[in-house]
Amino acid sequence: MATMGIVTKQHLLTYMYLLVYITLSSGVILYNKWVLSTLYFNFPFPITLTMIHMAFSGGLAFLLVRVFKVVSPIKMTFNIYATCVVPISAFFSASLWFGNTAYLFISVAFIQMLKALMPVATFLVAVTCGTEKLRCDVFWNMVLVSVGVVISSYGEIQFNVLGTVYQVTGIVAEALRLVLTQVLLQKKGLTLNPITSLYYIAPCSFVFLFIPWYILEKPEMEDPHMQFNFWIFFSNAVCAFALNLSTFLVIGRTGAVTIRVAGVLKDWLLITLSTVLFPESKITGLNIIGYAIALIGVVMYNYLKVRDVRTSQLQSSQDGSPKELQTEKKAVVDMDNREETLWNDSVSDTNFDEEAPLMASSRTSHLGIGRKPA
Question: % helix / strand / coil in the chain, to the nearest 5?
């Protein structure tokens, strides 16, 4: 009975973490849309909003790493920072910039549908960089996802070319960041959780964003009639940082399958809520059909990759001696969820979430996290 009680308590705690993650992830996206939209709060400066997120999250990460020592920094040399962190930060800032700018032109629902292209972009970039092999089964999954997104786009009533270009460009930049994370950091044996990711990458991303901000947004922000509510931006930045923490907790307690289910629920919930909160955005039956097709392709792709990870782990365990086999098999079981999560972060939309300023986005090495809210 005691064991059953512990299991139930652990399950409830996991579900609570997932609920918090889904709530924060959806909330940050809707909050950003509300702040940026000219129909609501009317602060059409996506680069500025992203810089606020980077400054706030980077500052809190500094306190957690250096002052309160909640997590430990990694051994970072100037060479690693210059050759790894700087290029990753450049693409990260670009993905946030273009992704947030898309909110000015297209609806939240359509943005979520376009994000189904994330695995496609990541796969194509990985194949181009030589980190992934072109396989027939994966290729046809990518075709299925692309067809679904095309159908969804065709059914979009308020289709906007510029907004779509911004969102797709942000997706490509995020895919480049994910592959660079794998190529540059993982090969050096470095892994970062969301907090240390923010600690190293947020300041650098802030610097990269400063140049386009100075050219594109600073002149317009000098308008004396522009409104700037401190509490609005403070609460927005707090939500974005809290999303990173919830992502960290979810990664530590669940596997890839659970995260994917939560991600699907979040996407459908977000699409529904966005049409309720922002009545000007409409979704059609063709939107839904196209997104459902794309989602099937994404789920199938995830299944293939998780299966590959498990096969690789089992083969590694079978290569050991009989004496070591039992220990290695136990290690495979213990590490299975963690490895699946690492993979899931590297290829899904997600993210996991692009909405978190630095999310797990993480993805391959838990860099990032979040995809983006910023």
Answer: 80, 0, 20
Give the residue from 267, 284, 287, 290 showing the smallest Cα distance to 147. Answer: 290
260 prior amide bond cis, ω within 30: no
SS3 354: strand
**Backbone angles phi and psi of 371, in degrees to 5:** 165, -35
Predicted structure pTM score: 0.83
From 206, 173, 180, 178, select the one nearest 58 (Cα to Cα): 206
* pLDDT tens profile 303-357: 887 788 788 878 877 665 454 444 444 443 444 444 333 433 433 333 445 444 4
Could you please report the per-residue DSSP string of 275-298?
HHH-TT----HHHHHHHHHHHHHH
pLDDT tens column, 66-120: 999 988 888 888 998 999 999 999 999 999 999 999 999 999 999 999 999 999 9
Neighbours of 8 (CB within 10 A): 10
